[in-house]
């Protein structure tokens, strides 16, 4: 429940840097804390979201981070629509990190879901107050006043007053109570549901858009850091004599070691500070450092994966149970089992992590490409033992996020150096730093075992999952998948099999584990969707028919009844039920759109996958071609049901992008670890998909009036299995260990 | 002092000859439109024009461009009116936008030499520019859109 408040007159606005004048509306919204966050709970303070100034500009605060998903446009367009603002007279202002905005953790595909209603309330309330102000000015009844396109019109006399002209009068009014707010109906929407172009588009095309790495301050210096190659290690000694001789180098400063678990602490190492980035990087090459590599120096990803697979031979910890899988497997002897693995993966945002910090006037101020500005505030406050209110976080545009920039370790680095040097310091990560010091997507192994009766009906399904938990980054005792991670495509699967059992297995962490776009949905969708395809072939069914059989009747699925409660992305199941009808709908639609039943030339085949994540439903059909040992992905169809699409063009672009992101991980994504160090370093050995490898992509967005649900991530998980399912259909070769380029030339 | 011409203006840089052009542009000239993505010529985010040809400025030392003409994204047009920039807006190409300066500069070089590129031409010319957000289909469309525009005026 949100609540709109008129805060135009409050003195604190001046302190918050909001220029006074005109109508300013705040909206209190519930805080939406991620499970692992330590940010303080939101108080009943006010959040400045809308300001109308006397020059007739409507300023709307974008409080969520923009990393390409379009939120800087999407949420403001909701406000502008209800407000009846002229979009050309709207100015979007990026919000500072401030708990008064409610959650600013831009992850989990939930900006629209969490703030759609609050933004509608803010816009509608402002609209009603402007009408009321006009009514008072003209001394007429408010019912005769209509706000439309940045002005209020008196219907009888046709007099008009602009929002700017009315803002002062509106500033003294009380907003309507929630029950009195009049919202637009869907047919009245002017911007919601429309493909508005992103607010930064002209700047981007002219090289004027400012990302974290572009920050420039007077008297600023540049830092490049050589970090301990193994997580948990530190500097024993170092020699910077040659470094200091490099032209432009100003200083060399040791970065301290923090105890494990790594959390968002800066890593141990040695920082070179110079008067330009190149000199800092060159100086860094001359460092001679003796490391104490610490407890994780024996970690090898190959060995570790074998260890995980062995653990799947044991009984795991049961997290969801229906019926009796053991009994069913004793009864039905037609069985099939498969083990799936995915290596460590990295985010590889095009903009590597970069942050600038300056300590001044008793505060620590930073400018950074962060997904969670309040998390950054809290981390800095904790690190330096200062009040959160003494940390100011300016959020720049992000050149990609995907989860990497939720972790402010790189901001801590800048703050440490800036504190010591008493001047602004920009830390820029090289690509090698980014690949080697990422918070990795967890390496994983899963096993699926099914038994079916003489009619081919699957009677039993046993699911086993093993991967190091992202909680290990915060909690040294976290040595197995957390249930909320299993709620991503594993413990929440909507299959109507009589006997079902989900188990998790031990998996200790030796790297910094984080969250990568769609998180553990990546491995769970790969496992589930591959296994459904395998069962289809084992029992002589078409894959889409197998899916429909397994999903079963139209209904709302309730894993909680079977002991598994940490699903549904923090939302109540009655508000956002797991709806099998919606899942079957996207499946049927993708089969229809892609015409998967048509005859294809030899060596070509379709593969399909369906997955629900972040409360949305996505089906992908991929057509591949194999010639000899060479794979080409020719065509992909994606159908998404994300409820009401606020900006359909951004939904379209997110899905297109997800197909390509998914192909990168499926075909060529592999970070391997040897002796605790990542072996890869740049795009020659951690490649990303290029223009020439991109298939024809078709996106279909289901028209829906359901509540808006996730868009940024749900397109990713079904991609990999659609590819490996297609490869099987074309060749009879089943790939269970990603990436595909281990088996085929891509 | 290293002299060169950037976006039609003569500049003098007090820099080491081995400094890559990219860092001279970004740190010394405050032209941050050209981006750092890899430092090894593998991603194309740093693409600028040297005497009209696309180069990767992150692996091009100042010594190699002394006395030459450099054009960056900032100099592609006065006001965003280059046909590619217009096409980029019409096709709503960018997502995060970080790689887009490099994409546009590579595309501009392509269209200068090839007014009607085929899909294969586009693949070849643009294969050096990575986009993590996956805007490739729209980049392709925008290049064809711009080629049409430029064809109309020629």
Query: Span from first to last CA of chain A?
Result: 50 Å
Low-confidence stretches of chain A: 30-47
Quaternary assembly:
heterodimer
Could you tell me the number of beta strands of chain B? 5
Pattern of helices and strands of chain B: EEHEEHEHHHH
Lateral strand order in the biggest sheet of chain B: 2-1-5-3-4
Query: Mean pLDDT of chain B, rounded to whole units?
Result: 97
**Overall pLDDT metric of chain A:** 94
Uncertain segments of chain B of ≥5 residues (pLDDT<50)? none
Compute the CA-based radius of gyration of chain A. Answer: 27 Å
End-to-end separation of chain B in angstroms reads 41 Å
Largest interface: A-B, 63 and 58 residues
Q: How much helix is in the residues of chain A?
A: 25-40%
| Largest sheet descriptor of chain A | 7 strands, mixed
Secondary-structure-based class of chain B equals: alpha+beta
Question: Number of helix segments of chain A?
Answer: 18
- Give the strand tally of chain A: 30
Strand order of the largest sheet of chain A: 11-12-9-19-16-17-18
Helix content of chain B: 25-40%
Question: What's the shape of chain B?
Answer: globular
